[in-house]
């Protein structure tokens, strides 16, 4: 793993994931010994918090459901206050393989943000139809914005160094796709650098993903809208002023 990182926090946002979060936490502990784990229980109505705590994670309970963006901002705030060198998001549903954590962290050797990319010639993860078109469109635009080739800007499997954590605490939107596209645009506008590393994704262990033709079409339209809003926002510096 990146030898410059002494303390790394794994942030696991979780909403009603009692069937998955326990195995996810245990697998992270087995695969990435020495990393601290915090599960942000995003207003779950099931036993997500208890299961995560029993598996060995620190739990931040949110009183209401804020969405992934709100949960991650809480996690980054925790990382900042406790002086972590880096933080990495791992979803609770088991799709992010903990065996890839150290690989994604290695990307921080030459960038402030490292994205675990699902469509970079590794693994068999596939998305088709309008959802795939939206991902390709977003990746093309973000490649130009970031000045480096990016193939999967909606991946939540991403790591942030100390500078990026500071930026995320100041601005990490909770709106739809804000945790991925909007946060990335804001980070680049603040002068942070981005890279990606190929990762293999796994199928969801329990529960069903919300993908159907109608949902995929809505995803396409909302993605374009979210990106347009992100690009129109004023640039922000890491000191909180705008340009």
TrEMBL record:
Protein name as annotated: Glycosyltransferase involved in cell wall biosynthesis
One Pfam family per UniProt: Glycos_transf_2
PANTHER family registered for this protein in UniProt: RFBJ PROTEIN, UNDECAPRENYL-PHOSPHATE 4-DEOXY-4-FORMAMIDO-L-ARABINOSE TRANSFERASE-RELATED
Protein family (similarity comment): Belongs to the glycosyltransferase 2 family.
GO MF terms held by the record: transferase activity
Biological classification of the source: Bacteria, Bacillati, Actinomycetota, Actinomycetes, Micrococcales
Domain Glycosyltransferase 2-like: 10-167
Lineage top rank: taxon: Bacteria
Organism the protein comes from: Agromyces hippuratus
Keywords linked to the UniProt accession: Transferase
InterPro entries: Glyco_trans_2-like, Glycosyltransferase_2, Nucleotide-diphossugar_trans
